[in-house]
From TrEMBL:
It comes from Tannerella forsythia (Bacteroides forsythus). Its main location: membrane. It comes from the Bacteria. It is found in: Membrane. Keywords: Membrane, Transmembrane, Transmembrane helix. This is RDD family protein. The chain crosses the membrane at residues 33-52, 59-79, 112-134. The keyword Nucleotide-binding does not apply. It holds the Pfam family RDD. It is a multi-pass membrane protein. Residues 19-146 form the RDD domain. GO terms for cellular component: membrane.
Amino acid sequence: MAYSSIITNSYVRIDQEPASVGHRVLARTIDSLLLFAYVLLISVLCGIYINLTEKKEIDLVLAIMIVVCFLPALCYSLLWEVFNRGQSPGKRFAGIRVVMRDGSPPSFSAYLLRWVMLIIDLYMSCIGLIPMILTRNNQRFGDLAGGTLVVKENDFRGIQLIFHELRHLTEDYHPIFPQAEHLSLEQMNLIAETLSDKTNKRSQRIHQLALQARSFLKIETTIPDEHFLRTLMRDYQYYTLEEI
């Protein structure tokens, strides 16, 4: 299974697993059954009411039927995803959710593009299955247009927790080591991985990496090793965000 990588603002790489084609087909099948049941129920109720009402009121009943039944049915996917954070009942049952490629919740325009592209993906002989099978992240045309992914729910919860825990730089932050600007993303990932090490060699790894960083950046400081590495990450983040 392919993974889609996210680089957070703290320059830690996070992998999220796209939902399989099978999970997406299951979700769509459940949504279609629920939608069919809804339309059938409203149609039966309206039919009963029409039989009990006068002919002159039939046009009004039909208008109400269109508004109450067919418009929500037409916008079923859009409404559920917008108001339920990327999940329809079918997606919830299948344990999947719509997100942006960076793991954040989609914007309304992204949801709208996905919904409009259903005309091609679903209603034109299910042609959307082709890109879902061929693309690395199992994206249909609507996903490609909206810049979205459908991922497993467990991955989504983990990513949101990480995003919540990461602290963004404050506006009045001033970098300590200007040399951090010359570090690479790979070096930042190495620092992050070393700081998150939970083995008994963590202190040794941090000390060795701090020595290498001081030598590479030509920095003379008495700051403790771990604090020094965390400061480098924060400074690197500051300079990178300044360039955006």
